[in-house]
Write a structure and sequence with these properties.
This is Protein kinase domain-containing protein. The chain is an alpha+beta fold.
């Protein structure tokens, strides 16, 4: 792709890849040689007409919007499923919050920046756009979150990604209106319960959560890694208010405390469970937020009912009064069953300071502390398998030194490891933490009390092939209840890494991880049952666990479930169902899934035979290095 030309621009580098498209930087080949961003739809999605329409509609919506705080579109090439946008210098708000959270604990800084966001969304919610021969009013973003906001070097924000937006009064949305679109932690209650009913006030809810996160520095909800956690977070959104900033931010002046009290009220109103109790316009929220800085005012801030004239022009909403203690939230749509879950404990942090938070640190092999990467998987390359000799896929750990991997959107690079103070006395010996690391302070021990910290240490040792130390820390993480630690510990036992091979132990730890909802553990457990390792061969159990992993979006599980349907193992053979699961893996960019989709198109199994589509899927797979796909293309006299 590097060097490809689109309009007057030549692509120079890849910026990032997402679930639907890839963004590149490009430069004009003449004149001022300005830089731009070019977004391409993923090649394997170009035959998916609903997704293609959604991609093109993003460009069409951006073209209708003209605001300095919303990224501009410069050109569209529908034949190549690509569009050109202005290049925005800077880092996302989420990156800023990770690297320097203290910046936005200053109310003046946060309110100045956030007011610009509210201006931009107020504009988007009221802009008149043309849909065919009709004029419609208002664009709802539906996916407002810190990672969709870029902060330019001058501190001003720029809004990205209108890919799942919709026209407020337009019945047809870019996606199935019954689907939940957006990021779980920022969804409004109505977005969870009835996505088709979402309007501009859902954006206001998401803005309230984003404002809360700017002051605290992290999301109010835990990272979602499985379906059960999705349900738990959604229940909290529907039934519980956000914690008050005044209870989380300590060591503040009396003036700042009064400001935070007012901001608490603003956030409470913006995130009210019922849309009619929220601000009815972003402009109203902006004015109230700016007034919060003036602590000499005696009136309560942010709890007044909205005036009818402040409602969205497309729909006048009767707003209800919100009690002063609006943190006493009422559940949204109580006909839905609430699932019980443990309370989330949020540790107070200091405002305007950056103390070491040991819950978010891990111990490196040289004894220093480093931030936890919050990785919940370490999948690597699968074995290459012949189409005619199916075996279920496994999660293979990375063995190469110096490898940099991306897992769940988080980059992890190998750290420089110093030589441990004491080597193990024998191949089976496991040394103590102090012997491994050297002097261990109380602060280090505090960090190691967390299961995720222990997992991180184990993974870092694994990357440098020090398997004995890796298994020690995986064991600690597993015993503390870390599902990914349990999965990795099972893998070490299965593959004789740092410990004698023991399929029974491997099975035990995979079972613990799988029961806890870890998708990799579920996929690996399925393979143990499929192959009869540590237990008798049981296709029914294999099918059960592959399905559990697949339904969480685990590509390995999706491929394995496809194989079960393809070969009729544990279930009646069903090529159409096999194609469905292969396709889901393929659409995640999985090369093996792409190869299997190609085989079904070539053979006409589960789908009408189509050699052109088979070649297309073989090609995208082959370009990722899949040897079977490369061989298939050679057999069909095609290049890749």
């Amino acid at each position: 792709m590097i060097g490809t030309k689109l309009f007057d621009y030549e692509i120079t580098r890849k910026i990032k890849a997402g679930g639907m498209g890839v963004v590149y930087e490009a430069q004009r080949v003449w004149g001022k040689r300005e830089r731009v961003a070019v977004k391409f739809l993923l090649e394997q999605l170009r035959d998916d007409e609903p997704i293609r329409r959604r991609f093109i509609r993003e460009a069409e919506i951006l073209e209708m919007l003209n605001h300095p705080r919303i990224v501009r579109i410069l050109g569209l090439d529908p034949d190549r499923d690509a569009f050109v946008m202005e290049f925005v210098e800077g880092k996302t708000l989420s990156e800023h919050l990770r690297s320097s959270p203290e910046t936005y604990r200053q109310p003046e800084v946060t309110i100045r920046m956030f007011a610009q966001l509210l201006d931009a969304f107020d504009y988007a919610h009221h802009v008149v756009v043309e849909i065919g021969s009709r004029q419609e009013q208002g664009v709802v973003h539906r996916d407002i979150k810190p990672s969709n906001i870029i902060i330019e070097p001058d501190g001003n924000p720029k809004i990205l990604d209108f890919g799942i937006s919709r026209i407020s009064t337009f019945e047809s949305t870019l996606t199935d209106p019954k689907l939940q679109m957006g990021s779980v932690a920022y969804m409004s209650p109505e977005q969870i319960v009835n996505p088709a009913a979402v309007d501009w006030r859902s954006d206001i809810y998401s803005l309230g959560v984003t404002l809360w996160e700017m002051f605290v520095g992290s999301s109010p909800y835990p990272q979602v890694t499985n379906f059960d956690m999705v349900v738990q977070v959604q229940n909290k959104i529907r039934n519980e208010p956000l914690p008050k900033l005044t209870e989380l931010l300590t060591n503040v002046s009396a003036k700042d405390k009064r400001v935070l009290q007012r901001i608490d009220a603003i956030i409470a109103k913006a995130t009210a469970k019922h849309p009619g109790q929220r601000y009815q316009r972003c402009q109203e929220m902006k004015e109230t937020l700016k007034a919060a800085l003036h602590v000499d005012q005696s009136a309560e801030i942010g709890v007044m009912p909205a005036k009818a004239t402040d409602a969205h022009p497309a729909e006048t909403v009767q707003a209800n009064n919100v009690p002063n203690d609006s943190h006493q939230a009422q559940p949204y749509l109580e006909e839905f069953t609430q699932i019980q879950e443990p309370n989330t404990v949020i540790t107070p942090i200091e405002m305007m300071a950056s103390p070491v938070n040991y819950e978010n640190m891990s111990l490196t092999p040289d004894g220093s502390l480093a931030p936890i990467s919050n990785v919940h998987g370490n999948t690597g390359a699968s074995k290459w398998l012949n189409r005619l000799q199916h075996q279920p896929r496994r999660v293979w750990a990375l063995l190469a030194l110096g490898t940099v991997v991306v897992v769940a959107g988080v980059w992890i690079s190998r750290i420089q490891s110093s030589t441990p103070a004491v080597q193990a006395a024998s191949p089976q010996a496991i040394v103590t933490p102090a012997a491994e690391i050297g002097e261990v302070t109380d602060e280090v021990l505090a960090a190691l009390s967390m299961a995720d910290s222990c997992y991180e240490v184990g993974y870092q040792y694994y990357q440098v092939r020090d398997y004995k130390k890796a298994i020690y820390w995986y064991q600690k993480a597993a015993n503390l209840g870390s599902p990914i630690g349990q999965t990795n510990l099972g893998y070490m036992y299965e593959h004789e890494l740092g410990v004698a091979r023991n399929y029974t132990e491997a099975l035990k730890w995979y079972q613990k991880a799988a029961t806890a909802g870890n998708a990799d553990g579920q996929n690996n457990l399925g393979s143990m049952y499929y192959n009869g390792l540590g237990t008798s061969k049981d296709y029914t159990q294999a099918l059960k666990w592959y399905r559990a992993a697949a339904e969480q979006g685990n590509a390995g599980g999706q491929i394995n479930l496809g194989i079960m349907y393809d070969e009729g193992h544990g279930v009646a053979a069903n090529k159409t169902e096999a194609l469905k699961w292969y396709m889901r893996a393929a659409n995640q960019g999985n090369a093996d899934g792409q190869y299997y989709v190609g085989t079904l198109y070539e053979l006409g199994e589960g789908v009408e035979q189509n050699e052109n589509k088979a070649v297309q899927w073989y090609r995208v797979s082959a370009r990722q290095g899949n040897r079977n796909a490369q061989g298939a293309l050679g057999r069909l006299n095609q290049t890749w």
